[in-house]
Amino acid sequence: MWIARANYEALLRDRVRLESEVESNKGIIARLEKELDYWRGKFEGEQARADRVNDRLMETSGFAPVSETGIREVDEWKKKTEELMKGYMKQNTEMFADELPGEEVVEIDENLLGEVVKGFRE
């Protein structure tokens, strides 16, 4: 099947125009995706800040944190304090092991320790 030269050239021009539009649209899409990532990050940062503020207000009222950020921070804080307590307990048992009768290493019951701390507060 033969096609007229004018039609062929018109089809080529249309194809070139469409290809350039596609390339242009790819650039626009990439720019918009980058902008979307920027605003998504900004939104997540603001949401985390608002969660922290809300959790602090809840804590001052005597409630536990309710947001994921607050719960994660509390869990991290609990892990750190547990590690510190274990280290202090080990250090104390090593320091006073020769003064305590019986076994060299004495395990201190955590409930007893909690009751002692509660007694000092009262």
Describe what you observe in this structure.
With 122 residues, the chain is mainly α. It has 2 domains: 1-66; 67-122, no CATH class. It has helices at residues 5-60, 68-96, 110-121. The radius of gyration is 34 Å and the shape is rod-shaped. The model has no long low-confidence stretch (mean pLDDT 84).
Main features:
3 helices, 122 residues, rod-shaped, mainly alpha
SSE diagram, text form:
Elements: H1 5-60, H2 68-96, H3 110-121
Total strands: the figure is: 0
Poorly predicted runs:
none
Kindly state the mean pLDDT as a whole number? 84
Cα-based radius of gyration, to the nearest Å: 34 Å
Give the percentage of residues in beta strands: under 5%
How many individual helices? 3
Terminus-to-terminus distance? 101 Å
Structure in a nutshell:
This protein is mainly α.
